[in-house]
Amino acid sequence: MAAAARPGPEELALLEKLLGLPKGNKYGVQGERKVPVLQTNNGPGLTGLITIAAHLVKQAKKDQLLGSTAEEKAVVQQWLEYRVTQVDGCSSKEDTRIILKNLNIHLEDKVYLAGNIFTLADVLMYYGLHHVMVDLTVQEKEKYLNVSRWFNHIQHYPGVRQHLSNVIFIKNRLYTNAH
Amino acid sequence: MRLRVAAGGPAALKVLAAAGAAAAPVRLVWGGPLEQPLAPLSPPWTPALELDSGTVLFSPNAICQFFFLARGEEPTDLTNQWLEWEATELQPAASAALYAQLVHGRKGLEAVEVLGKLLVHIELNLSRRGTAYLAGDTKSVADVVVWGTLFPVLQDETSLPSELQVLRTWFQSMTLSEACRKAADSVLMPKALLEFKSYLQKQPPPCLAMERATSNEPEEEEGSEPALTEEEITAAVDAWARGVAALPKPWQPQKPVLPVEGMRNVLITSALPYVNNVPHLGNIIGCVLSADTFARYCRLRNWNTLYVCGTDEYGTATETKAVEEGLTPQEICNKYNAIHTDIYRWFDISFDYFGRTTTPYQTMIAQDIFQRLLARGFLLQDTVEQLQCEDCQRFLADRFVEGTCPFCSYEEARGDQCDKCGKLINAVELKNPQCKLCRGVPVVKPTQHLFLDLPKLEEQLEPWLEQSWATGDWTANARYITRSWIRDGLKPRCITRDLKWGTPVPLDGFRDKVFYVWFDAPIGYLSITANYTDQWERWWKNPQQVELYNFMAKDNVPFHSVIFPCSLLGADDNYTLVNHLIATEYLNYEDGKFSKSRGVGVFGDMAKDTGIPADIWRFYLLYLRPEGQDSAFSWSDLMLKNNSELLNNLGNFINRAGMFVCKFFGGTVPDMVLTPDDKRLLARVTLELHQYHQLLEKVRIRDALRCILSISRHGNQYIQVNEPWKRIKGDEKDRQRAGTVTGVAVNMASMLAVMLQPYMPSVSLAIQGQLCIPPDCFVLSHNFTCTLPPGHRVGTVSPLFQKLEHDQIEALRKRFGGGQPEDLAVEPQAKQTPPASVTLMAPGDPELIQELTEEVAKQGNHVRQLKANKAEKAQVDTEVAKLLELKKQLALAEGKSPEVLVPKGKRKK
């Protein structure tokens, strides 16, 4: 079976490595949805994937990954939220189809989710969609062409993919009349 | 930047409040609910912020965040955490609560219930940090976002549980802040809320992440289940130990069943099936089977229950059918009433009484209601232009006219209603009307008729509806259909018809007319009860003591929610009016509709010929009961559900539990020593049982069935983990453990037998017999208790279900898939047509061709003769149909395509 990043601690471990942080953070999970919790030495700890991820980014002093201007920051926030509410919440093939369709529309004129800058939103969306993309047929990959282009780009971004399986995309199109 | 919001939309509140709190210079654009979504990725009703750069933000939280960022307030770990919590935990629960309030009419604390744990979470965080606001001592984006989601549900702090003191204070101070107050005033206008409500009503109910996890994914790990509290476990163990004493005594009502002072008296009706149609599976699940399941449940709850139904027998269709078959209308009714009775008996429908509408009581009660309406001035007289077919020499009843729908231009609209757009039609408004019998063009003739003055009754109807909706369970579709009916405006409605077969109108000038079937038919509920007991008025004129449930498919809603209540309100005789109106959506067959004429689908009388037991049919129909949305019968799914849910899950568990008692303990239930794991299982099963009750009390029959299956899943897991078949061979301790597990499992099986009774009565009885469950345990309470104590002897245990094989199912699919040579609509004459086997022969069989050619010639002569003798149009038509059928057979035998022979006018699209 292809290695997949399960939402939560595993994904945060990947992120830590990408950010170049030393290992040592302890994670737990909480509730039915297995929300990740970061245990800290002082205080009650942090709960939630986005919250912890943003915390790690700041810890690694790579704040640019959260966007620089107010607008970029809000856009990054929006896609992180989309990741945890829509992508993680999808329970059927139909939900997945809608998400891919929406992302495909959004990415039509963009390199990254937030436009022209690589951000945390791209990283977490990549981790969150990996198990979906692995299962797509060649035809589906072509149908969601913009998502495929973006995904292929992110998986080759230095340090992002790590041990996750490489999803293969075919360069020449096979189903030209599909669009 | 432009902020586009839809008034009434719940998320509009937080973005406006955030804009106000952060003093963001936005230009507001109000979007209507009916417009396109404001941003491509957002559903209608969510706001969108268009930034000057052209970027559109569609997430309400990101919009709020942006306003605060723009004035230099950076997010912190804490604000991020609140925002994430709000998006993933609070919002889904708040939407569910809002839906419950607006659509189901839940009030106050009951609607807030789903928010329980989340409110406590806020309370704890505020009190632990000791700060005035969520993320510190100043107001932040977190406060606005959380408040904005809570406010539409709570409205003010008084709907918060009083023990959440800190939360109340925080909520109140937020509500009083200028930005929030202003936002609330501009967004939550009553009118806007109403619009939002009608939008919500068209949406499926939101499901909480929690529920979703349990329904769609098999539970992999223990951790994914809701945690049990210590109290729940203790209570479950107590109830278990009390044994049969924890159950109420089953109550046997006197016959005839009559309301009893101080008891819950439940009167259940299912829509009266029209007599000369054989009901199909969709009809069966739509009313009689759903009502039966609920009635059985009520009886198991010791509620004093009466379930009545019967055939609706008056009307033109019966008259015509009688002519066709050469019988009197009454003979036709007798014949078909027997067919209905047989079908429902086969399906094990537990009517207290199954009657009919053609009885003296019907005439008496209908005429009484009529006289009372007349005396109180609720009837109008008017001249009606009505379609008369000159060839057939009769006024045409609505259903005997077909034409083009004046609203949607559907070409096969019936005279009373369009099947496509569902609107009611006045027959004379049909475009290109055609007499359904002779295909002639009818002419419009004036005639006198009586009308029920619905506009005048509306002022009585509305307060009654409001009250019934507030206190009763009406399905969402029933509310929606009723509301749209009233919104379109009520018009006087004709209650008389120019027919003979009906209840005579007792008024001079109208004595040759009868009541329109929809004025008459619901009165059948009363008259059928009257035929059951002469004390029928104790059920039907006793709203103080009786709770009335009406079951039906959604097409019947307006007659039960508007027209019939208006008749009874107008008659003003303290009638029992419907408290709970339970309407199903439609059941389709495979990928299409059931069609009698095309022979598509399974009809009531054929179900028993499939060799599949009635209980399996009941189970599958109830499993896919069209609750909330249409569903489809599918053969392969039936096989799958039978083999997986019944055979492998439920049947397997009950059989194993019983077999272990027999094989390992000589048929005697062993001693049980409960471990903490067992106790948790008891609590888990109790939770499922509570859920089962909660759902059935709301008549969510399909969903409650899942609880039964889920208990047996727990049971299978329990047996699998504890492996009693291995432990029985071990030491003393192991053998004791095997005994405990077997004992708990067989008691679960015993309770499942009772829970299953409303769904599968024969299987339930079989389990009762196999396990020798005492009759006193056949009652439902909220406790899972030990009904088969150590020492109890079980009987002979045998498998409950049979596997359905692929070949068998494929054969059935083919058999009921339509395209049969016999047209079922002309069944009575079918004997004269050549045997069905002809189509199985190879094309070109000379003997067959010869035989059919002769038949065709003979039938052709017969038809010509009939026409020459000016025989009844209907008779000619049926003979022509037979001729066409023969020609089709011939074409098939000769290996030609039969299509070309079908006359154009009759071809279905």
TrEMBL record, chain A:
Domain spans labelled GST C-terminal: 55-174
Keyword Mitochondrion among UniProt keywords: no
Annotated function: Positive modulator of ATM response to DNA damage.
Assembly and oligomerization: Part of a multisubunit complex that groups tRNA ligases for Arg (RARS1), Asp (DARS1), Gln (QARS1), Ile (IARS1), Leu (LARS1), Lys (KARS1), Met (MARS1) the bifunctional ligase for Glu and Pro (EPRS1) and the auxiliary subunits AIMP1/p43, AIMP2/p38 and EEF1E1/p18. Can interact simultaneously with MARS1 and EPRS1. Forms a linear complex that contains MARS1, EEF1E1, EPRS1 and AIMP2 that is at the core of the multisubunit complex. Interacts with ATM and ATR.
Gene Ontology biological-process entries: cellular response to leukemia inhibitory factor; negative regulation of cell population proliferation; positive regulation of apoptotic signaling pathway; positive regulation of cellular senescence; positive regulation of DNA damage response, signal transduction by p53 class mediator; translation
Highest taxon in the source lineage: Eukaryota
Keywords, ordered alphabetically: Acetylation, Coiled coil, Cytoplasm, Nucleus, Protein biosynthesis
UniProt keyword Membrane present: no
GO CC term, one of those recorded: cytosol
InterPro entries per UniProt: AIMP3/p18_C, Arc1-like_N, EEF1E1, Glutathione-S-Trfase_C-like, Glutathione-S-Trfase_C_sf
Record localization: Cytoplasm; Nucleus
Pfam short name (any one): Arc1p_N_like
Name by which UniProt lists this protein: Eukaryotic translation elongation factor 1 epsilon-1
Organism: Aquila chrysaetos chrysaetos
Main location: cytoplasm
UniProtKB/TrEMBL annotation, chain B:
Keywords: Aminoacyl-tRNA synthetase, ATP-binding, Cytoplasm, Ligase, Nucleotide-binding, Protein biosynthesis, RNA-binding
Pfam families: Anticodon_3, GST_N_5, tRNA-synt_1g, WHEP-TRS
EC class: ligase
Family: Belongs to the class-I aminoacyl-tRNA synthetase family.
EC number: 6.1.1.10
Subcellular location: Cytoplasm
GO cellular component: aminoacyl-tRNA synthetase multienzyme complex; cytosol
Chief localization: cytoplasm
Domain WHEP-TRS: 848-904
GO BP annotations listed: methionyl-tRNA aminoacylation
SMART domains associated with the record: WHEP-TRS
Reactions catalysed according to its record: tRNA(Met) + L-methionine + ATP = L-methionyl-tRNA(Met) + AMP + diphosphate
Domain GST C-terminal: 72-206
Any one GO MF annotation of this record: RNA binding
Source lineage: Eukaryota, Metazoa, Chordata, Craniata, Vertebrata
Name by which UniProt lists this protein: Methionine--tRNA ligase, cytoplasmic
InterPro entries for the chain: aa-tRNA-synth_I_CS, Anticodon_Met, Glutathione-S-Trfase_C-like, Glutathione-S-Trfase_C_sf, MARS_N, Met-tRNA_ligase_1, Met-tRNA_synth, Methionyl/Leucyl_tRNA_Synth
Region (Disordered): 818-840
